[in-house]
Amino acid sequence: MQYLSDIGWQYQQTIINLYNSGIVPDIISMQLDINKDEVYQVIKNQAREEQRKQIAVKQVSDTSSVGTFNLDTIINIDLAIKHAQHSMWNALKGAEPQFNISMIEETQDILEKYAKSKITFVILHIDIIGSTAMSMTLPVERLATIIQTFTQEMSLIIAAYGGYVLKYIGDAILAFFPVNLDNTSLPCINAVNCAYSMIKIMHEGLNPILNEYDYPKMGDV
């Protein structure tokens, strides 16, 4: 069995291509005769790099220009779905969900900037449908893991669309998008597109992994 340190960049790209085509990491490992942990690491590194690019795009626009262009045109939703699958898969295997503390700091910074001025926000409230049913069928620790992973992935997509997480309320998230007076409609468009992307990530990213464990799906009524 080979290790990535021995086989180099071309095999790493092959892993990413296979993963993006829908092949699960365990199968990739067997097909290429590569250590399974190394395959997961390549996928994780790729997801981190794409997140870094998305965050960089967001940081390029300063406070005065937030919400002045349609972010849906630059966000790779397919990659976000793959990242959500990978995160939920790892979390259910025992890995601790990791929150990006810098996003909380960004929220505090933006609120401080607007503390002494009047500003319009687009508010986005997200709540898991079916969490009550999940709480009745899953152990508390497993339910907490699922909700933490859901919260992590939704927070990332909120940030990618130019929004900020105000607070977490159980299995709900309250987010806001600052409105630029030069273009009041785009923050609304970004917030709506963000909501659509979140639903897609939940149904196509998180729920398939839950289904593999025979757990209740999010959004099921």
Layout of helices and strands, plus pairs?
Layout: H1 4-7, H2 9-20, H3 25-32, H4 36-60, H5 77-92, H6 101-113, E1 121-127, H7 131-137, H8 140-160, E2 164-169, E3 172-178, H9 185-212
Antiparallel strand pairs: 1-3, 2-3
Offer a concise description of the structure.
The chain has 221 residues and is mainly α. The chain contains nine helices and three strands; from the N terminus they run H-H-H-H-H-H-E-H-H-E-E-H. The chain folds into two domains: 60 residues; 158 residues, Alpha-Beta Plaits (2-Layer Sandwich).
Overview of this protein structure:
The chain is mainly alpha-helical. The protein folds into two domains: 1-60; 64-221, 2-Layer Sandwich (Alpha-Beta Plaits). Helix content is 61%, strand content 9%. It has helices spanning 4-7, 9-20, 25-32, 36-60, 77-92, 101-113, 131-137, 140-160, 185-212; strands spanning 121-127, 164-169, 172-178. It has a three-stranded antiparallel beta sheet. Strand 2 (164-169) and strand 3 (172-178) form a beta hairpin. Helix 5 runs antiparallel to helix 8 and helix 8 runs antiparallel to helix 9. The longest helix is centred in the C-terminal third of the chain and has 28 residues, at 185-212. The chain starts with a helix and ends in a 9-residue tail after the last helix. Residues 1-7 and 59-66 have low confidence and may be disordered.
